[in-house]
Amino acid sequence: MTTVDEQRTDEQRTAVFRPAGTPEGLEDLRTLVNTAIDTLRDAHLVRRGPVLPGGPPAVAEAARRALEGPLLPERPQAPDEVFRELIAAYANWAVDLTHPAAVARMQCPPTSVAIAAELVTATLNQSLHAWESGPFALELERYVVRELAELAGYGTDSGGTLTAGGSLSNLMAVLAARDSVVTTPSGGTPFADGLAGLGRRPVILCSDATHFSIGRAVGITGIGEDAILRAPADPTGRLIPDELDRVLAELPADTVPVAIIACAGSTDEGWVDPLPELVAVARKYGVWLHVDAAYGGGMLLSPRLRGRLEGIADADSITMDLHKFGWTPASTGVFLVRDAHSLDALSQQTTTLNADDDKAAGYYGLYADSVQATRRVDALKVAVTLRSHGRDGMAELVDRCHELAGHAAGRVAAEPRLQLAAAPALSTVLLRWLPGTDTDADAFNGALRRRLMSDGTALLARTRVPREDGTNPVFLKLMLLNPATTPEQLDLVVAGIVATAEAMEAAQDGPAAAAPDHGGA
Amino acid sequence: MTTVDEQRTDEQRTAVFRPAGTPEGLEDLRTLVNTAIDTLRDAHLVRRGPVLPGGPPAVAEAARRALEGPLLPERPQAPDEVFRELIAAYANWAVDLTHPAAVARMQCPPTSVAIAAELVTATLNQSLHAWESGPFALELERYVVRELAELAGYGTDSGGTLTAGGSLSNLMAVLAARDSVVTTPSGGTPFADGLAGLGRRPVILCSDATHFSIGRAVGITGIGEDAILRAPADPTGRLIPDELDRVLAELPADTVPVAIIACAGSTDEGWVDPLPELVAVARKYGVWLHVDAAYGGGMLLSPRLRGRLEGIADADSITMDLHKFGWTPASTGVFLVRDAHSLDALSQQTTTLNADDDKAAGYYGLYADSVQATRRVDALKVAVTLRSHGRDGMAELVDRCHELAGHAAGRVAAEPRLQLAAAPALSTVLLRWLPGTDTDADAFNGALRRRLMSDGTALLARTRVPREDGTNPVFLKLMLLNPATTPEQLDLVVAGIVATAEAMEAAQDGPAAAAPDHGGA
């Protein structure tokens, strides 16, 4: 009898559809990938800033040209032409995260080895929900999660999963915390009874510096954002353990504290809540402690900085994003729990996955560890990136970003017209231009940021920073996640901000005062 | 003054960290990608089945060898060596989705053009939450979502988002439905009041064929799985509109119907609920109608099959997965809403994203359309895949899978010892081996599936199918999502199943009866 394998090759060669994973498809892929790399190089070489100038109208116009016509034209079009046109537009009008002035968001410029791993991940298209969806991928995910848990100081009873990002990790944390206090009058799982099983009004405790994804998670899980109680914080925004203790002691009897959410690396200033003290308070009241270390978790990689995360190993759950400090492309979310059983509510029975006899024979997947079913494999890029850099290499990358922030802060402080919010705690620098007293400083800084974007000279973030005088002004933010940037380059970025602000002021005083400040001319 | 751009090149060349997006990093990437493609080709050529033989113990042993040692060794290791070793193990022990006998799960073998797009996506690492995180990527996502909404028949008021998979799309659907009935006594958003604002006991109506991710979504959103009311269905598992009408009319006064969940392509048999009639019932009672077309949504691409989805354009929300029919790698989830305002509960204010003055100037992202913040761009692979295949090409791919199912069903029906569950509705074939009366058929079919996996000859799914005699036996399932497979190859897959079952029976009758049936010897 001819086997399937003997029969395949000739027939597949003539087929209209060539999957990427066959030898013929792989050669198509090689050609396309070379085109892609050439296109990315060309886009990089012609660009003179972190983004092309012109702002939203110019991007909209570029999109109109590149995306003209239907997504599904009637007839097939030559793949290489479609591909070349679309990726050229995509690359030309992308933010160049390798540029020293692309410091607007917590997106790192990823390493080549991580990108090559993504190619393998995508081509093989394994999934993690069942053994037969990706047998080796499952082992790899378990290995990566276990080693990350160990890095955080968790023991062998811990569990966790890679996720599609920090927001989903935080959602899983709120879920695990919620389900730890839901009683189950029906005798079923916390999932079965829902919030009706709660009995009392839920309360979530955190500070004002807590990331907005926590609010969303509280909304999604049905607890309701009104349940969030902002506990007193010190001037840097960090929770005050004694005050939190008092708040918990004074909670009304008809309420139930669901979780304390601690921040390890606030996205603005990079502060870490006092974890050891929060652990003590959480234990005293038997309340779930979640540490959102989406940003600050990278300090675990640095012997110099990891002391700031002391206590994290005693938290009930941890969020980390390796697409921030970690230099893998998004998404590389991480969610860890100190006790693997905290995820039990997710392990429903299904008729199609992980039957008991299969499980007994070793054929089962990670469906029950995640809120997803089909789930792309993010572990391969993590494994190759961390292994190829090693402890020393990763530490150096994190430390460099931290040092760059220190350098940039010094440079900002030396500029008389720039105000620095505070010495950088981790790798962000908060600054604002101080215009004359007759100008609205918030509006000016907002406009300055837009001008830099529409000029294509710098991409900054923006936020508001509570000041000791009770105000909450707009600040601009540099987020430094590119270890290849040099201090000298950052000097030029800061100088560019100053020059643009000065030019805007000069224009306001001069005849061009009526010109629009945004949208690109 | 030297500009940042003039200063970059020389310094970056000597840096320890070379991001993939720089010209030097791109050359590193080219080398690694060539290694990757060679490794994938080698793995493909040596493999004689959809997976290497040996089952879980063999995979565990391979993982032990490949993953020996810490994820973070002290010193950096040569990237190309780490990479080659890990991807060789990953590829060798992966499920080969291009193999005709890899029919266990709804994972498609993706096209080369989609994979090359993933490389671009990963290298540029854009995100969709803010303008400055990916200006062109935002335009592309909007374009792709709009065109997919149009494909579903939605109008210009519709909205939606790409998601990390069908489970998250279904979560968003339950969330939107929930928030459409939550009253807001505080005058805030549905998110603010949570389920406390519901007042009455929520009810979710669906059939037994509804995907388990709906149960999860109902659990996550705090509604509680006990709120799920399985409405009467016909023998194929489809909701009966008149019965649903009666159930709704008879709901107790202290309950509130939150949503009707319709199935468009059940994962086992591929049936579609009677959508036009369900639309009428949903409208009569003012209840949210969600259509989970994660699997069946692909029929929109086929003129021959899309009539089966008639009525979908009148649903309030739709889930689709382009990583099933769509031939892009996971994740390519799609969530569509008929009225874009259905997602308003997600658009909280934050201090860091989309300030009003930025928004007025066109600088804003898609943060408010999704449950994520940083979000990877899945639209590029969709755009290049759909455009390069066109309507005719995509229709042909979907139709081929449908035809393959018909062919395989015929082949199964012709085997006296195999039982076919029913004529295939879409692209799955349900079959089981009929052992002698003294053998537990469920246990035998479970063992048969494991034997095929541990032999490395075929990967099938498994489920239970309710029969007219009231039993619910184990069936095995072929999920046909590879249009490159030929009918002749499928004949051999079925023949292989028969031969293995016969060999197992012979062994049971003979001296080897005590041999273990699983785990691979």
From TrEMBL, chains A, B:
<comment type="similarity">
    <text>Belongs to the group II decarboxylase family.</text>
</comment>
<dbReference type="GO" id="GO:0005737">
    <property type="term" value="C:cytoplasm"/>
</dbReference>
<keyword id="KW-0456">Lyase</keyword>
<dbReference type="InterPro" id="IPR015422">
    <property type="entry name" value="PyrdxlP-dep_Trfase_small"/>
</dbReference>
<dbReference type="Pfam" id="PF00282">
    <property type="entry name" value="Pyridoxal_deC"/>
</dbReference>
<dbReference type="InterPro" id="IPR015421">
    <property type="entry name" value="PyrdxlP-dep_Trfase_major"/>
</dbReference>
<keyword id="KW-0663">Pyridoxal phosphate</keyword>
<dbReference type="InterPro" id="IPR015424">
    <property type="entry name" value="PyrdxlP-dep_Trfase"/>
</dbReference>
<keyword id="KW-0210">Decarboxylase</keyword>
<dbReference type="GO" id="GO:0019752">
    <property type="term" value="P:carboxylic acid metabolic process"/>
</dbReference>
<protein>
    <submittedName>
        <fullName>Siderophore biosynthesis L-2,4-diaminobutyrate decarboxylase</fullName>
    </submittedName>
</protein>
<dbReference type="GO" id="GO:0004058">
    <property type="term" value="F:aromatic-L-amino-acid decarboxylase activity"/>
</dbReference>
<dbReference type="InterPro" id="IPR002129">
    <property type="entry name" value="PyrdxlP-dep_de-COase"/>
</dbReference>
<feature type="modified residue" description="N6-(pyridoxal phosphate)lysine">
    <location>
        <position position="324"/>
    </location>
</feature>
<dbReference type="GO" id="GO:0030170">
    <property type="term" value="F:pyridoxal phosphate binding"/>
</dbReference>
